[in-house]
Amino acid sequence: MNRKNKKEPRAVKNLLILLSILFLFIMLVLPLVVVLGEALKKGFQLYIGAITDEYTGKALILTAEATVAAVIVNTVFGLFAAWSITKYHFKRKRLLTVLIDIPFAISPIIAGLIFILTFGRIGWAKGILEALDMKIVFAVPGIILGTIFVTFPFISREIIPVLQAQGNDQEEAAAVMGAGAFRIFRKITFPQIKWAFLYGIVLCTARAMGEFGAVSVLSGHLRGKTVTLPLQVEILYSEFNFTAAFAVSSILVVLAVIILIIRNVIEHQMKKAGGKV
Amino acid sequence: MRRSRKKQVIPGFGISMGVTLTLLSLIVLIPMASLVINASSMGFSTFWETVTDKRVLAGYYVSLLCALTAAVVNAVFGVILAWVLVRYDFPFKRFLDGLIELPFALPTAVAGIALTNLYSDKGMLGHFLGQLGIKVAYTRIGIIIAMVFIGIPFVVRTIQPVLEDMDSQYEEAADVLGAGRARIFFRIIFPEIRPALLTGFGLALARALGEYGSVVFIAGNMPFKTEIAPLLIMGKLEQFDYHGANAIALVMLAFAFLILFAINSLQIYYNKFTKQ
Amino acid sequence: MKRKNLITLGIVTTLLAGLLTGCAGKAAEDADGKAAKAIEITNVSYDPTRELYEAYNVEFAKYWKEKTDQEVTVTQSHGGSGKQARSVIEGNEADVVTLALGYDITAIEEAGLIEAGWQSEFGNNSAPYTSTIVFLVRKGNPKQLTDWDDLVAGGVGIITPNPKTSGGARWNYLAAWAYADKAFGHDQDQILEFMKKLYQNVLVLDSGARGATTTFVENGQGDVLLAWENEAYLSMKEYPGEYEIVTPGISILAEPPVAIVDSVVDDRGTREVATAYLEYLYSDVGQRIAGENYYRPSNKTIAEEFKDVFNLELELATIDDELFGGWDKAQAAHFDDGGTFDRIYDGETQE
What we know:
The complex is a heterotrimer of chains A (about 280), B (about 280) and C (about 350). Chain A contains 13 helices and no strands. Chain A has about 280 residues and is an all-alpha fold.
């Protein structure tokens, strides 16, 4: 991982490291300590009780479902969108790029509201859904849709800057030599973007798991049916169950750590297989 | 999106664009249209009155000011963090690297409660800062802290892949030619990470503008002082005033859209500039 | 190359189709779930009623099984009262709603889901249990806060949620207003002046009742928390020995009402069980459960059983008093844009 260029003066290097550690410690480690501390405040027994609760289990499953759906859909979209934007010339490219970013720019509450205004009882698509006997909002599909929406740009957003930095020379040369799009993508583009792609998936997973605002609007909070882990945290907190709320939050922290481990393993494998990064 | 006159060099334009636009429309554009349709039914004068109300204006100001400050802090620390994590080795590096995603995985409300706990004048850090005369929780500084927290992953994780993939030969060449480290950084490395930095900055800013869950706990929510625009949207909804909520949401969206658009233009300008 | 494209397109279509059929499958499952022997209803409630309904649902299921030999499952939903009302308006199919204030149920009525006259459908204004607004202070009451006028003194820090975003906080506001109205003999200017002073002492205006409690309890802000009586008791239970409850001389009768969502029960054929569900809240069993969860039972005899817990002598104003004239009027006068609450803050635009 480390390169040959360790040429900065030692002082600068140490200062930067110190600054980083300090920043991460204050901004991330301490809040984490608070979460874990509150979760364990009333003893381990209560902690285990809170995280093995039946409804917490159901919430965990729903969160996993929504996260997997979000990662799949956003991977497909992310790859196609990043490829389209960086490899071709077309008009209004800038507009398209900004449109993709919209889900980030929207307050999560509004993200939930737009689906209510579309598919809810007061929405215009209500008739269509009734005809199909489908329920979207205040049911599982709404939660999945909301999760996909808020994480929509993640993967494309990670890949685009890398592709922009690389330029298109190699792809164009390959195309001139008669290679097809998929072959170009697999042989030339993908090796360049694999890190960004991996980071994108990790970010998307983390954000999908933790999404609260949009899902909260779309869920209806039906216990055991449409409650995800973050909503379970909210419910426990609102019923003055402070400790249990933090215990359930710690599950999300653990999940985030698991994702990190998986990422590290993949990174390691890829490096071993690929030699040069 | 029409295909431009010039023939594409790389094949596969049709399908890539097709998939991109289909998904974009299904998941983003069509639902978004509902917002515009809904707002358009309220009539311009009511719309204008709602979005230019004194308290709402103060809300935009607090939101924009804090989000911008937070995004700048994130940009600076994001570059440092990404650099340190990619280039250096030090104890607990893996652990710290893994923590970067934490702000995403933690539900925003939990983050808000934990941060308030830390920074209120009875909290670990707040107590210490209080002695220095700095009040963090329930002030705008608190809002900024919450916004920095939720924005960290954006900048770090957009710059990191670029640094990982960066070809070190130019750096080495420059080094051999005797350029100083600072010069190398600003002349060679910085232009490489600039698109990623701009993207990360824009995303962190946009996210901070819309953030609600973590901010309301630490903000204090005093009208005209620490009341953010998303809270006003919630207030309208709580009064069953969908139109009012919608109107403020549209204005906030317009801000975010403009910011992202400006950043994009800047990026395109730089790309052209560096290519020439 | 063409083939590759087709394959990709195929994958995408399958994924999308899978997502959609997944939705359809879920919907069908729900429809099949309603067998004749078992019945399911949804109770959309507000935040701190979980323990109440958790206990009550068990008792009700027993009662219903005995009466009709039918298994009833009650799905609970909890959240901020206004938010919950909104979700019902937006399509969350609740058979019954049990919310924090009549205004929220009226909003559902106005959306056409509940028929007019719901407030007289059940006893006591359709409020099977009530509560009131009290002061939660730190142990020993260090600032000696005993009534509302103590709160406007300099140096007192008050924590109360924002009435714009929290339904419960509107009761707090109105309780203070009721005091001022009595103290200043209906003089509008003096009342407003009092309210202004009161809110100048507010340190943090949280978005919800729960957030305000955290601010006061966990983060140690302020000297007094204006809270619902039942929530104040929940805080005392969570932190034994650290807080005290002070009942002011006058407060407001907070009536969290219940109602049947007519359009949903007619659609699902659950009217009978939904009605029984709400009626049973007024039974001795239901009333006692309410009392055990720190809500004041509306049944006077049962309330007497809890006289050690509740100060039953407290003078209580009600929302239907001439002073407020019901929720519609109170909402318009105080909490809508330009109402008295906005005017309190308008004066101090400049910091």
